[in-house]
DNA sequence: CTATTTTTGTTGCGCGTGCAACTAGTGCAC
DNA sequence: GTGCACTAGTTGCACGCGCAACAAAAATAG
């Protein structure tokens, strides 16, 4: 096996590890957020992204990128949250194609209530992943990432 | 903001980054594998896991863990692949609850054809992720993981 | 041996998703 | 101005998913 083959295998291994850790955390968060607050992980992610803008609006397209969702899924997710009164659609005046979304106060309340659950479960899931010899290295690397570097994901 | 709050924020940031990279790669792989070989990422993952056992059987439960799937999803995924002649169910004699699964030669062929696509797209997606300042650190950390340490994910 | 609990895999069901096709609005060429 | 390409968001549709309930086999208790 040559150097090039090694690189391929390292990438594949890294991807398997990444997917495993992601699945572990995602499943844990999904169950906790769903049972305790009636929202899914993507819904939490979108609301958190909106709140992170601190009063700023976000377009559907940005939301789609922030949540790694397709356009259609984003449309329906926003519709769902709007029907529940957690956010509002705001037509943009200068570009009549664009639609801004904004958290309502009810949305912020729910987010505030859900955040402790989210953070606790995330903490717990990471610890559990770190207990697996296969996943521990990635979890360790994750802890080294600093929020300071780079731009927000959305 | 205290030290504890920093830890919470670092975890949340790491998780957002992880999810973003995962989504990027997963979407790219999904499109490529689906259009070029007619299989999904999970299907490829399962077949790859089976092949990795090198002639060994795997039980449904192991497959479920390896692919981060529920029991029901695993049942249907195996049924799908079996209907396409890519793998076979093998009843286990000593434990009549257990069901082993094994790749057929057709399954191995398809896997062999799909692997170059998978590896190339993975390479490309990682490079694209590395171009984002926000995601680059994690991609770099991923390259540092070595396949030698630890046990297989399943 | 019989009763209970646990494990393994399968099905009914509702729901969220991506893709493709579509409508509506913008920007550019000329 | 008119025509054309592009972007933003929505809808029809088929499909895979998780959850809960289930059947069957094994392990454990008495």
Any overview of this molecule?
Two copies of one chain form a homodimer. Chain A is mostly helical and about 150 residues long. The first copy, chain A, has one domain: Arc Repressor Mutant, subunit A (Orthogonal Bundle), CATH 1.10.10. The first copy, chain A, has six helices and three strands, in the order ααβααββαα. Chain A has a three-stranded antiparallel sheet. In chain A, a hairpin with a 7-residue loop joins strand 2 (about 85-90) and strand 3. In chain A, helix 2 (about 40-50) packs across helix 5 (about 105-130). The longest helix of chain A is centred in the first third of the chain and has 35 residues, at about 5-35. Chain A starts with a helix and ends in a 10-residue tail after the last helix. Residues about 150-154 of chain A have low confidence and may be disordered.
List the helices and strands and how they pair.
The structure is a homodimer of 154-residue chains.
Chain A: H1 3-37, H2 41-52, E1 58-59, H3 60-66, H4 71-83, E2 87-91, E3 99-103, H5 105-130, H6 136-144
Antiparallel strand pairs in A: 1-3, 2-3
Chain A binds a DNA duplex (30 and 30 nucleotides) through α4.
Q: Overall mean pLDDT score of chain A?
A: 92
Strand order of the largest sheet of chain A: 1-3-2
Radius of gyration of chain A: 18 Å
Instruction: Profile the largest sheet of chain A.
Output: 3 strands, antiparallel
Share of β-strand residues of chain A:
5-15%
Termini separation of chain A (Å)?
A: 40 Å
CATH topology of chain A: Arc Repressor Mutant, subunit A
- Secondary-structure arrangement, i.e. CATH architecture of chain A: Orthogonal Bundle
Give the tally of structural domains of chain A: 1
- Supply the helix-strand structural class of chain A: mainly alpha
Contiguous low-pLDDT stretches of chain A (5 residues minimum) are: 149-154
Please tally the helical runs of chain A, counting DSSP H or I stretches of 4 or more residues.
6
